[in-house]
Write a structure and sequence with these properties.
By secondary structure, the protein is of the alpha+beta class. The chain has 45 helices and 34 strands. Strands 18, 19, 20, 21 and 22 form a five-stranded antiparallel sheet that branches. Strands 1-29-28-27 form a four-stranded antiparallel sheet. Strands 2-3-4-5 form a four-stranded antiparallel sheet. InterPro entries: Vps41/Vps8, Vps8_central_dom, WD40/YVTN_repeat-like_dom_sf, WD40_repeat_dom_sf, Znf_RING, Znf_RING_Vps8. Pfam families: Beta-prop_VPS8 (PF23410), TPR_Vps8 (PF12816), zf_RING_Vps8 (PF23412).
Length: 1232
């Protein structure tokens, strides 16, 4: 009855909803334009009074909500920046507000105290749960169809925390904050089941989900456990069986997601296993509920932020030409993808796919189709991503939605908050029940409204850009649709031909609209920059007819638009995207560029254009007027197949200036000459100038024409005074080396072409005739020619013939002794000629003779080096004034570098020695520096004694003394250094050098050095006291060695003795009796005193007090204990007290060295009665050392003999040596 009353109370009249003749459909609402004149305004926040807000809803506020209590949310919120991807993909999402549902939610909260929205689910209907336990069901027309539950039940059950609708939209499951679950019939609004024992009490329902089986569902509570719900109906009685799938004690699960298949995929082999994905705080689990429970896969997150919210989403995708389910999951900023497929044997495989990284913390993950994902971050920004390319398509700010968060249910506030801190931390940003996807539509639940996101179709995306007057972006987007490269495409044909046809029509429409808009807006501003912003794009190639037809006819009426259009064509022409223009447009293009002085652009465009679209007369005239040589050559070659006229014209224009040696060549003529050389090279190589290749059928013809041009005897209409072969003459004068390089490259291609080989020989003969028989070429130019010839003649397949007499003439010309001009240039040319192989063309004797007469010493060096006459090369350096100082480098390299024979090194050394002696005798007349001399001395004079003599000779000169010392020290010639220092008068310095040689630190004492500093000794020589010094050094070395050896022996014996003494002292003592040998009482039973005992090495045991009363010797600083029984028995035998216990069998040491005191009941707070007074540290050390040495000298030999040899033997210790006397210094005196 209560339910009927509530249903009756909630009607249109109660909610004050106006009646409409035809209610709007959901499709009409979704397709509503966004920029309508009268936008629907939601009710003010003040309508939702504080009395209507309970504890269950206070934690479910959005980041954008005005009454959110978390101030940190406001800090994270920031305005949306325009995404860079928007310029490429446009607006991908359509955002609609479901105004009817939003208004009725607000009215219900105000009129009937329904509470705030808390949960949402979408199928063919939309169900919204409230904080007061109601579930409002709306149909596709946004009309309220059912109101399930009551406010009274809400008080008992709490807020609706989870909702789920089965696949045929007949049942609704509601989970509540206090743990109950209800099932409703959506056909009549009847309550079918109330489930209270499906999970442990005291926990809230976080998720409740139907599977594809209508009798099977799963739920997840705030304890982190997951349960399977099986619905049964037997004999008209409905029941529910619950089974725990995952216990929260093993790890809390905070998200579950069953795999749902559409009607077309119900027969997929995966669906029969009823897969369920569960996300705990540490890992992902994929299990199969049918036919039996089985875990298919687990995947740990790794290191993540503990506040991050785990997310799960299933979707069937096409992979490897097969449709299989894919699970997307994330926690934090990384989205992982798992593909599930079943092989032919029936085994299910879970395959990890490429993951996706974002720079934000995700709180929601939803598939909107098989290729596109919607990701919501913690700043309430919605990211649209294309999964195959992992490209972000758009970002939308949802802060105005005021999203509902489910943190109160994760904290289980309705049941006392008995949840773990980890789950409560995750719940701070949990919005599982506020985002739901159904059939390509994603619905978001806000605190006061419901919003829906869908993908725009391709036309809407283009139109959206056109409304914003972004024509360039619209064209770019349409072109991506045309080529099939666009992302998140909706509404296009799958057939490429149909798709391109539809998109092409739309692009034509955009272009025409673009042109009209450009013409209307440009004159208003009156500036070219405005026009450039609106028209900096050319149409794609398939629409060139439209571009140069309808569009250009509209633009030609406006001069500014026409100019910008023509200039915008240049980059497309240069990239060869436009290769042919109509004659009128080409004529306008050339005229426009010429009027604006853009001749470089004209030339660049002409060489890329189809020759058939050019006006030859106009282009040729323009090229001649503005010296556009590249364009002119292109027109002659491509338009008229004329490859000779450009060379004739270029040569004629540059010939007068090039032939005049004393005339400065203009920059234009240099450019023309360079272009002519490159053109000849390209023509002979079969390449077109400046771009492309010559047609294959024309290559032989072009080569023949170029050769015929070069070997012409005279130019057309030549004057009488013209020289023969004018073209070759001109090119040689312009740049001899480069022209010969062009010919060399051309000759490389002449292999089996007989005619080409004839041209090759003919050109060589002409070159020789032109350059050798005339005198207007420099030696450098002549040398370049013969260098070129030498290279050609040195080839193994050479077919050229050159008369050797010509080489002799060139040699005489270059080596002419009467001509002193350009001496270095002539020598360098001849050297280059020899290096490339020209030496075989000359007689070496004659070459050497002419080179010596002409003073070409580098030529002589080249010949001598071939003959390995290295000693004669020495004289080449000596005679050459330009390289005289390099002689020492040559000698140094010759004597130190590998690769030379000993005889060759010896000959060079002998010549160097002779030269140095001669130089020394006439040192005042030579120009050789002293540094170069000393640099070679160390190598030449290997014996140190000989070096001392030579340095002595040079030390007569003051300028060489310091240099000589530096050289000898550098090469570790210490004897020579000491000798030079002594000659200088520095006897003390020489003495210190000798000490360092023997490894002795120079003395610092004044006593040792005083004889050397005394005037009597100072005036003498080092040799006078050398014997005394050497004797002192030998004695010192002997005594030092003796001291080190003695110290080592002492240390070894001392270590051996101390180690055995330590082992004897640390050995445990075993008493023979358990009673005192004086009082005969057991030491364990004595009760008075501290019960201290003394055990000796002989085995006797005494009470400390008993032994102290019988025998105790008080020394100066300690008590001397001795065994009473052993002392008494030896006293009876007449032995001294010092021999106590020595005669005990098996005891090899005196008991005085092994005294032990054992305290059975020590009192740590009371000091023993015989505590000794400590001695000064230095006195104890002295007494200890004396005692040890005395003991060692007494017992070391006996102990060795007793342990190693039973019979008495002489010890080998150093202490028992007959010749050794240990002299110990007395201990230091201690002042009291």
């Amino acid at each position: 009855n209560k339910k009927k009353e509530v249903k009756k109370a909630i009607d249109d009249k109660e909610f004050d909803i106006p009646q409409v003749d035809t209610p709007p459909t959901l499709e009409s609402i979704l397709n509503e334009p966004e920029d309508e004149d009268e936008a629907f305004v939601l009710e003010d926040t003040c309508l939702l009074g504080a009395e209507n807000i309970d504890a269950h809803s206070c934690e479910t506020l959005s980041l954008g909500s005005s009454d959110s209590g978390d101030r940190s949310h406001h800090k994270r919120r920031r305005p949306l920046e325009p995404a860079a991807a928007a310029a490429v993909h446009g607006s991908v999402l359509r955002h609609n507000v479901l105004k009817g549902i939003s208004a009725q939610m607000a009215s219900a909260a105000d009129k009937v105290d329904a509470g705030l929205p808390t949960a949402l689910t979408v199928s063919s209907v939309i169900a919204v749960g409230t904080s007061h336990g109601l579930a409002l069901v709306f149909d596709t027309n946004q009309a309220l169809r059912l109101c399930l539950g009551s406010v009274a039940e809400g008080v008992e059950y709490g807020a609706v925390s989870a909702l789920s609708i089965n696949h045929d939209c007949t049942r609704l499951l509601c989970g509540f904050a206090k743990g109950q679950i209800t099932m409703w019939d959506l056909a009549n609004g009847k309550l079918l089941r109330t489930i209270t024992d499906a999970h442990p009490p005291g926990t809230a329902i976080l998720h409740v989900k139907f599977t594809d089986d209508p009798t099977l569902a799963v739920c997840n509570d705030s304890g982190g456990s997951v349960f399977e719900l099986t619905f049964r109906r037997v004999m008209g009685l409905r029941s529910c069986d619950s089974r725990c799938l995952f216990s929260g004690s093993k790890g809390e699960v905070c998200c579950v997601e069953p795999l749902h298949a559409s009607t077309q995929l119900r027969d997929h082999p995966i669906t029969q296993h009823a897969l369920l994905a569960m996300a705990s705080l540490t890992k992902i689990l994929v299990i199969g509920l049918k036919p039996s429970l089985k875990v298919w896969m687990t995947f740990p997150y790794g290191k993540v932020d503990p506040a991050s919210v785990p997310q799960l989403a299933w979707q069937f995708v096409v992979a490897h030409k097969m449709v299989n389910p894919m699970l997307a999951f994330c926690r934090g900023d990384t989205v992982h993808f798992l593909l599930v497929k079943k092989d032919e044997s029936g085994v299910i495989h879970v395959i990890k796919q490429r993951q996706l990284h974002l720079n934000c913390d995700l709180i929601s993950l939803t598939w909107i189709n098989s290729r596109t994902l919607l990701l919501l971050d913690s700043s309430e920004r919605l990211h649209v991503l294309d999964r195959p390319s992992q490209e972000e398509l758009e970002t939308v700010d949802l802060s105005e939605v005021q999203l509902v968060y489910n943190s109160s249910h994760f904290k289980s506030l309705a049941t006392g908050g008995n949840v773990s801190q980890a789950l409560a931390l995750v719940g701070e940003k949990a919005c599982y029940q506020s985002v739901c996807c159904y059939s390509g539509q994603v619905v978001f639940l806000g605190t006061k409204s419901v919003h829906m996101m869908t993908l725009r179709n391709w036309r809407e995306r283009v139109e959206h850009l056109l409304k914003q007057e972004k024509f360039v972006e619209a064209l770019s987007l349409a072109w991506s649709f045309h080529e099939g490269t666009a992302k998140a495409v909706v509404g296009l044909y799958g057939d490429p031909a149909k798709r391109k046809s539809v998109v092409a029509d739309k692009m034509v429409e955009i272009l025409l609209l673009y042109a009209d808009r450009s013409l209307k807006k440009c004159p208003e501003q009156g500036r070219i920059q405005v026009m450039e912003q609106h028209f900096q794009v050319a149409a794609p190639p398939l629409q060139q007819d439209l571009l140069f037809g309808q569009i250009y006819s509209r633009l030609v009426e406006n001069s500014v638009a026409k100019g910008v259009f023509l200039e915008s064509l240049e980059p497309y022409i240069l990239s060869e995207r436009i290769g042919c223009l109509t004659a009128p447009i080409m004529r306008d293009l050339l005229s426009h560029f010429q009027e604006n002085g853009m001749m470089d652009s004209v030339e660049n465009c002409l060489v890329h254009m189809d020759i058939t679209s050019l006006d030859i007369q106009q282009v040729v005239q323009m090229c001649w007027e503005h010296q556009l040589y590249d364009a002119m050559i292109y027109v002659f070659n491509s338009g008229m197949n004329d490859y000779i006229s450009p060379m004739e014209v270029s040569s004629a224009c540059s010939k007068p200036a090039l032939l005049d040696t004393f005339c400065s060549v203009a920059d234009e003529q240099v450019v023309m000459g360079n272009k002519l050389l490159v053109y000849i090279s390209c023509s002979l190589a079969g390449r077109a100038y400046p771009l492309g290749d010559i047609p294959e059928d024309l290559v032989p013809l072009v080569k023949n024409q170029v050769f015929e041009f070069l070997i012409r005897l005279h130019t057309p209409e030549a004057p009488e005074e013209e020289e023969v072969y004018p073209y070759i003459h001109t090119l040689l004068h312009f740049d001899t080396r480069e022209f010969l390089n062009v010919l060399a490259l051309t000759f490389e291609d002449f292999k089996n072409d007989k005619q080409a080989l004839e041209y090759q020989q003919r050109i060589v003969d002409i070159l020789l005739k032109v350059m050798v028989e005339t005198s207007d070429f420099t030696p450098s130019q002549v040398g370049c020619l013969f260098t070129f010839l030498a290279r050609q003649l040195a080839k193994p397949d050479n077919t050229l013939f050159v008369n050797r007499k010509l080489f002799d003439q060139v040699l005489e010309f270059l080596c002419s002794p009467d001509d002193d001009s350009r001496h270095t240039e002539r020598q360098q040319v001849l050297l280059e000629l020899l290096q490339v192989g020209g030496v075989i063309q000359f007689d070496e004797g004659r070459l050497l003779s002419l080179a010596e007469k002409a003073e070409f010493y580098q030529i002589c060096e080249f010949v001598y080096e071939k003959k390995h006459l290295y000693d004669k090369i020495f004289f080449c350096y000596l005679k050459d004034p330009m390289r005289r100082e390099e002689i020492f480098n040559y000698v140094h390299n010759m004597l130190s570098m590998p690769g030379y024979r000993p005889q060759e090194r010896h000959s060079v050394r002998e010549k160097a020695l002779e030269h140095i002696q001669v130089t020394h005798l006439g040192i005042s007349d030579t120009h050789i520096t002293h540094w170069h001399i000393t640099r070679v001395l160390v190598i030449l004079f290997v014996p140190p004694s000989l070096l001392v003599i030579v340095l002595f000779l040079y030390s007569l000169y003051t300028c060489l003394f310091l240099l000589g010392c530096q050289i000898t020290r550098q090469h570790a010639l210490h004897a020579a250094t000491a000798y030079l220092l002594e000659r200088k008068g520095d006897v003390l310095g020489a003495f210190q050098v000798l000490l360092q040689v023997r490894g002795i630190k120079p003395p610092t004492s004044h006593v040792s050095v005083s004889p050397l500093q005394d005037p009597v000794y100072g005036k003498g020589k080092l040799a006078e006291i050398q014997g005394l010094i050497l004797g002192m050094l030998e004695t010192f070395t002997y005594e030092q060695t003796l001291l080190e050896t003695t110290t080592n022996l002492l240390n070894q014996d001392l270590h051996w003795s101390l180690s055995h003494l330590r082992s004897a002292v640390s050995r445990a003592l075993h008493p023979r009796f358990d009673h005192c040998n004086i009082c005969l009482q057991q030491y364990k039973r004595r009760q008075e005193g501290a019960d201290e005992i003394v055990v000796f090495s002989c085995g006797h045991l005494y009470h400390c007090q008993c032994l102290q009363s019988k025998c105790c010797t008080q020394l100066e600083w300690t008590l001397a204990w001795s065994c009473y029984k052993c002392t008494s028995s030896q006293g009876r035998r007449g032995a001294g007290p010092g021999r106590a216990c020595d005669e005990e069998p098996g005891r090899g040491r005196s008991s005085s060295l092994a005294q032990v005191r054992v305290g059975a009941h020590r009192n740590p707070s009371k000091a023993p009665p015989h505590t000794h007074t400590p001695l000064p540290t230095h006195l104890c050390a002295a007494v200890f050392q004396l005692t040890i040495l005395a003991e060692l000298s007494r017992s070391h030999g006996n102990e060795k003999a007793g342990q190693l040899h039973p019979a008495p033997a002489r010890s080998t210790s150093i202490f028992h040596s007959e010749n050794f006397q240990l002299r110990l210094s007395p201990p230091p005196l201690v002042e009291e």
